[in-house]
């Protein structure tokens, strides 16, 4: 069986934005969060069993009070990335520079909002100035393909190449086709691995703020993690069959 190469872990379900499309159903008064010792134990045990990368999201990871401790404990053991809305990033830059994550991606949820695009461009530059590789996630709606194309042009003009842009289709509604997403990107692009078809990957696991495990962040088929170990993670995935987003619950 291939190793579990990459984990996506939602540190908290707290987020000031409370986006209606959020698969984690994050909200400003969210109370679910991982204990830092559990995150660290699981991440290190998985690293010992071949996991190479862990992505911290949410909710908003910058609203998780133990982010610095988690980053410090996993430094040098895993490739650590963070996905953030960017709303708190300006004040967190110093702490992030000290923790030195390998990558921070700023999400653009509304590509038609010029101010949001400009802020993401500025924040990527600020991350790079502090030695942190920065990038952007662009959320693409079928109803907003022209806005996505314009945002992509602005990002490239600012020196943010396609190797640092991830184009993500809106789900479960207003979802562009793969061809429409490619047209919005304007050339070779990075996206979710499921873009070409829904299927679980033996090399990936998604862990929610409530401690459940799934083969995908969007599926409604999840199983609780019984222990903070690679073995328990594998066991939970075995009883949580993938249900395509938008499909009936298991």
UniProtKB/TrEMBL annotation:
InterPro entries listed in its UniProt record: Aldolase_TIM (IPR013785), Radical_SAM_PqqE_MftC-like (IPR050377), rSAM (IPR007197), rSAM_sf (IPR058240)
Cofactor: [4Fe-4S] cluster
Record protein name field: Radical SAM core domain-containing protein
Statement: the UniProt record of this protein carries the keyword Iron-sulfur: yes
Alphabetized CDD domains for the sequence: Radical_SAM
Organism: Anaeromyxobacter oryzae
Signal peptide (UniProt feature, chain positions): none
Keywords: Iron, Iron-sulfur, Metal-binding, S-adenosyl-L-methionine
Domain called Radical SAM core: residue spans: 1-199
